Amino acid sequence: MKLLPRSLFGQIVLALVAGLVVAHVVGAWLMVDERTRFGERLRGQYAAQRVAGYITLLDGTAPEERRRVVRALSVPPTRLSLDEPWQAGGDASPDAAAFLRRVARELERPAELQVLSIRRAPPRAEERPQGERPHGPPHREAHAAPRFLVLVSAQARLADGAVLTIRQALPEPARDWPLRVLGLLALLAAVVALLSGWAVRRLTRPLSALAEAADGLARNLDQPPLEEKGPQEVRRAARSFNAMQRALKAHLETRAQALAGVSHDLRLPLTRLRLRLEQLPENDARAAMQRDIEEMDAMVGGTLDYLRAGSDTEQAVRLNLVALLDGLAEDAEAAGAKVSLHGTAAPIMARPQALRRCLANLVDNARRYGGGAVDVTLADKPSSVEIRIEDRGAGIPAEERERVFEPYVRLEASRARHTGGAGLGLAIARAVARAHGGEVALAPREGGGTTAVVTLPRK
After folding, report:
1. What is the rounded distance in angstroms from the CA atom of residue 230 to the CA atom of residue 208?
2. Which CATH architecture is the domain 313-457 placed in?
3. How many CA atoms lie within 13 Å of 63's alpha carbon, on the beta-carbon side?
4. What is the pLDDT of residues 121-178, one digit of tens each?
5. Using an 8 Å Cβ cutoff, are 148 and 123 in contact?
6. What residue segments make up the domains of the chain, in order of their start?
7. 82 burial class (0-12, 13-18, 19+ CB within 10 angstroms)?
8. Helix, strand, coil proportions of the chain in percent (round to 5)?
9. I need a surface site. Which of 120, 304, 337, 438 has the fewest CB within 10 A?
């Protein structure tokens, strides 16, 4: 799902918080439900005790005094009567049986009991004790009148055979939620969520550093090693990554030294061949050998340039890109191209010779394969500078736009020297841009052609 977090940190925190919320919601529901059930048990026990108390009291009262006592005890929510006959067939529901058991346990002596009804309803006017009238203004009585949920009607035979009818109204259970307890649960959930987020962030931060180091490894093999701290698994991953970085750096240095040595050693026999060619008479064979020597020398020079492209031996200075591009445009126009410059940008920190080689290669490619017309646009952004070099050539297929950055790769299959170089121009350009912390990418130009986009960060 798109709404779910994609990061490991977000997913772990979501799982923890979701589990915590579910646990607290279920716990709160169980607590409120148990509170309600406990209240109902208390109300039932209270009603049973009152009914048993009325029976015991009237059982011990003289018959001539009972009516006066009944009138005195008939106070809402209770109504007592000695005038109703014993009604056959009481309520046989489980609630009635449970109520009778409670009353029987509270009685001092056994008595014949029955429950007439247990029903849920608000009190009605006829259920008020006879002769009782509300006291005070009607509106005050309406506000003060309690609400009832359960009405219990029961009968008991007293010791002398008299029938006592009892109607007891149980008050409605409290509807209010235990806000204090729920508030404490919510506060506990928030504290645990914050602590969980902090703990997860502490555990996943080294993984983020590892991912950033892996992303920057291709651009800068000399970046500082990772700190080997955190949980044991993270420390092992950082240690392995640092070992891999050292091994890659040593391998590339060895390869670069080997290629540089071979390329340098080739210069000496090439020089000897040039000297010997000077002693030969002018003819077509000598001219062909001269061209081959020049091509080999250019290939050796290109290889050395590629090997030096990512090095940081040159000192970085504040560089005026507008002036640099003006110089490149003059060189390209001298070679027969038509270059249009657009935009401006503030100076950046860069290595001048390396960056000049990067941009010169891209402008030269646009001149060679774009029909001679080149558009160069300079865009200044808050954190970077973007240079777009556009041509109007046939373009590069989408599946080949990354492959052409590989060393010695040329889309022109003839490998002829006059149709292009040794296939190192784009590789050198990307190596230089990445050594500056930037990037070079190719994109199709609207209307046909290719756009080389150079992005350089501001440091």
Report:
1. 12
2. 2-Layer Sandwich (3.30)
3. 7
4. 554 444 444 444 444 444 433 334 444 467 888 888 888 888 889 888 776 555 555 6
5. yes
6. 1-124+140-214, 313-457
7. middle
8. 55, 15, 30
9. 120
